[in-house]
Structure formats: C-alpha cells, structure tokens
Amino acid sequence: xxxxxxxxxxxxxxxxxxxxxxxxxxxxxxxxxxxxxxxxxxxxxxxxxxxxxxxxxxxxxxxxxxxxxxxxxxxxxxxxxxxxxxxxxxxxxxxxxxxxxxxxxxxxxxxxxxxxxxxxxxxxxxxxxxxxxxxxxxxxxxxxxxxxxxxxxxxxxxxxxxxxxxxxxxxxxxxxxxxxxxxxxxxxxx
Length: 190
Description:
Elements: E1 15-17, E2 53-55, H1 66-83, H2 87-91, E3 94-102, E4 105-108, H3 110-124, E5 125-140, E6 143-156, E7 159-174, E8 177-187
Parallel strand pairs: 3-8
Antiparallel strand pairs: 1-2, 3-4, 5-6, 6-7, 7-8
C-alpha cells in the first residue's frame, strides 16, 4: 500500500518501507509508524507513511513514482528469494562483478559470494526469516542506492540467531532490470 511522499530537496526520489512487528501495530522505537506514520524518515527527510510501504512521488499525491515502486518491489522479491534460499533466483539480483562487504570480509563477484559465503551460509539456516525495513531509495538515472535496516532470524547449528543491522546497496540498471553492483552491511552491536 502506498501513500503520500515527497520529492527530496537534494533532487532524489525517496521511499521508505516500514517494518511490521509480529502481531502488527506500530513500532514506537522508530519515527515511521505503521498506524498513521511520521513526517520524517531515517535521514530526516519529510515523508508520510502508512501501511507496509510508503513511496515518494513527483506525480499526483499518493501515487508512487514508477521507478521507485519498481525498486521497492525488486527488494521485496529479493527478500522472498533469500527466505526460499534460492541461489538461482538470487543470482538474478546480482551483477556478475558485484562486490560484497560483510562482516569485515570482501567477496569479489557473484560467483565468489555464492560459492564462498552466501551458498554455504544458507545451507546452515533453518526457519529462516530475512527482511528489509526502513528502506530509502535514491534514484539517479540508471543507478540507485538503497539504504535500509535488515533483520535475520534463523536456527543455525542448533542455536537461535536473531540479528540485523544496516545495509547499503548500490544498484545499476541493466536494461529494465536492477542489479546489485555493491552491497555493504554492518551488523548491529551485540
């Protein structure tokens, strides 16, 4: 569901996705609320939120910019593929030469990330729940960067994991498809 939005002073389109708590309801620890919303996103930009997704627009109020909506849906599809642990589908989201900075390490290229990090990691996850929330999309022609919070819950080797952190994705458009060219995550402090 989309509602409201603004065109940022810096000339970039913005979109924010809200995290829903189990059982629904608003998150009181974040300025954007599922029930009614806020006038500020994570970066202090004006935006009005409601429902699950809120998009900015340079068109009619309440209507998301088509490119912004495409990136938001693209990220939701990424989350579905991640939760399904579908490496073939996940491959469609990455540029072959993507760089991934995660946990102090670097993977160069999708094949390196798939074979030496993500693939082995996904095989250890049981009851995986992965999601992005508080998403902000910055569009600049055939490139975009997306900032967000991510959450991950799973059972790994008999131990429950409940973690998350911040993520920045640098995207490039290949034809009409967005591809991750760079990903940088920073896990929250334990």
